[in-house]
What we know:
The complex is a heterodimer. Chain A is an alpha/beta fold. Chain A starts with a strand and ends in a 7-residue tail after the last helix. Chain A is about 40% helix and about 25% strand. Chain A has a six-stranded mixed sheet with strand order 5-6-7-3-8-9, sandwiched between helices. Chain A has a three-stranded antiparallel sheet with strand order 2-1-4. Chain A has nine helices and nine strands. In chain A, strand 6, helix 6 (about 175-190) and strand 7 (about 195-200) form a beta-alpha-beta unit. Chain B is an all-alpha fold. Chain B folds into two domains: about 1-15 and about 25-290, no CATH class; about 320-550, no CATH class. Chain B is globular. The relative contact order of chain B is 0.09. The chains are: A alpha/beta, B mainly alpha. The interface between A and B is large, with 45 and 41 residues.
Amino acid sequence: xxxxxxxxxxxVRNKNKKEKEEFxxxxxxxxxxxxxxxxxxLGPNGAGKTTLLRMIAGILEPTHGKIxxxxxxxxxxxxxxxxxxxxxxxxxxxxDTLSTYELLKMCCDxxxxxKENSKKRINEIAKVLGMEQFLCNKIANLSxxxxxxxxxxxxxxxxxxxxxxxxxxxxxDIISSQIILNFIKEExxxxxxxxxxxxxxxxxxxxxxxxxxINKGKIIKAGTPEEIKKDTDTTNLRDAFFTLVGGVSxxx
Amino acid sequence: xxxxxxxxxxxxxxxxxxMDARMxxxxxxxxxxxxxxxLFLYFAGLIIFLGYNLLDGLIAIHQETIxxxxxxxxxFGLAIIQTIFSSINILYFTKDSEYLxxxxxxxYQIILARTNVMLIAxxxxxxxxxxxxxVMYGILTGAGIVYYxxxxxxxxxxxxxxxxxxxxxxxFIMSFAKLTKxxxxxQLFATLLVLAIIIAISISTSGMKQDLTNEEMAQMVVxxxxxxxxxxxxxxxxxxxxxxxxxxxxxxxxxxxxxxxGITIIGFIVYMLIAQKIYFKGLVGNLFGGGASSSxxxxxxxxxxxxxxxxxxxxxxxxxxxxxxVFLMQCLIPAVLIPIVMVVxxxxxxxxxxxxxxxxxxxxxxxxxxxxxxxxxxxGVIQFFTMFIYISITAISRDGENAVxxxxxxxxxxKQYMYKIIPNIIMNIVTIIITLGIxxxxxxxxxxxxxVLFIVATIMGILQSIAMIIVDLKRPKLNWDSEYAVVKQNxxxxxxxxxxxxxxxxxxxxxxxxxxxxVYIGVGILGTLYMIxxxxxxxYIYNRQDKLAEKII
Lengths: 252, 553
């Protein structure tokens, strides 16, 4: 179980050439993610989803608030927590001079996966994600869909317990997206805890058990997709979001 | 032409200010101007000092015109070497090529703009090593206005042909579609090929005028300005400009400049004609030739064997450098190449004075070798060589946006910093071994002295490696479009040079203070003293490992 309590993250930015100002990327965020649950983090670009996930993944330190994983926090158990996390960010070509296999093997070494298991895991993941054809190819030469599969695969070699997935399907075609979404659902069914950030509302409606809607760094609504639709008197999460923020005009 | 100028501006701006823009630093920020200004003053001062002493000596023996020849040759040679290193990257491996091709631009506009970037990069350096010494020559020899006008034209014209020539060779190599399809292998091949060219140039220039008899040589020295003949007959444009700069006749100067201009224009036309035919073939092949075809290679059982974490991590660092030609050229190769090229150059210099290796060895063996003074000189030379190893200073920046990977894997940041500096320490050791090997061969130093020097030089290398990764952590360059931005257009690269200069200064101080001390005691003191900051800086990076990673997001 992941517990996020009153998380706030403040940054300092240049207001103009001389002045600086403080702004909150996240403001007093609180929620829980249970085992065997996919929590959707929804919101438009710049809502604060990535900052929130980076804090949960231990990349950024919150200005205020606490994050715990089955009772453990980063201060006391940083390495132990990271040993159990799968963090996937964006759609980047990580270490693109390596081959897919070399990257996965390196991740096995980093996460301490032994020889037998690393062979088993790499083959298993390659099969599930359909990566056998390009296991020996350099990442730099892969297509967008293939690269994202590699990105996901490198997060999985150590059989993590917690998944923190930031826009895992952005830029992918319908087939690649579906393979990844199916995989996420299977992991959920195995009892894994999954935080899934996206700005595709339909996608979230399909796979998430619960959804947290964020706008301008704050939670504007949380609940199951059904509850949110019912509370906002809408038929889908897209309409529910616009109802909550007061329509597109509030962004113009 | 307007589009060419605009493109050139964009390429230049993109090359030099990506980092500043992302960090919100204005390109005109005071601190940046001060840093560049100080650097410029430092190097200009150094060049004036060295140039003045050399020119003063040459004037005393009435051989000052060879100074002009040497400078023009240096500009020509430097333009060749610089272009070998920069042209592959500027022409082919900048990431903006993919965005550029669909734009409504004519091929010649892109080629011209790319060539301009290479030339402008040359002129920045040539201003220091060419323009300043030639102005100094004019002042010291009381030259007139014609000299200065000719000199400006010479400085502009000399680097053009080498830039065009090397670029053409690179384009020719890159136009082989079959080779470019396997992009990574080809990058390595191209890198090794240009290295071979550098070594060939070093070797061929080391054999200059060796066929001269002692009598001919003596005649040249005795005859006023006779030594200029030594540098004539290799490059026509350099010959013409040498003549133009050293003649007293205005007519001759104009004719020689016009001859150079004519050759340059012909060279430029040929370059443009060939480039328009072959450049885009290579560029497109390089950009899209890799493809995502499946590989037939199978992973064997052995490859699944467990690797220790440090092996895996350090292996990843080495793979990242060896498989990327820019990183390979700038981070790994200098460790091996610089000591060897330097030795070839020094040997060639001595050889041209009629001294063979045997004579050199015999001569140095007549002076006391196993002294603290010689030990400090060797350590100083090692410092000079290792300041060009950019592994640690780019350890974080090389990962670019992937650097954030460090923060979410279950390995302490301190351990990762150490794994990242291991390649720097290894390459430092390679340089140390090569340098000590050469020292052993020439000076025949006792083995024990070599071992002691190895230990102290390694300690200095460790200190440098840790210090430089701290610099990179504090000022990382993570958002880049071309690897070139990390290893060339990165102000951080000044720091290893500064540290080496400080170390050389410390060594000079030690020699001055302890010149008669026993070599082992002296080097022992040095080693102990260098251990202290090494331990302190190691403690610092350990204690502040999280804080130091703040800029990695």
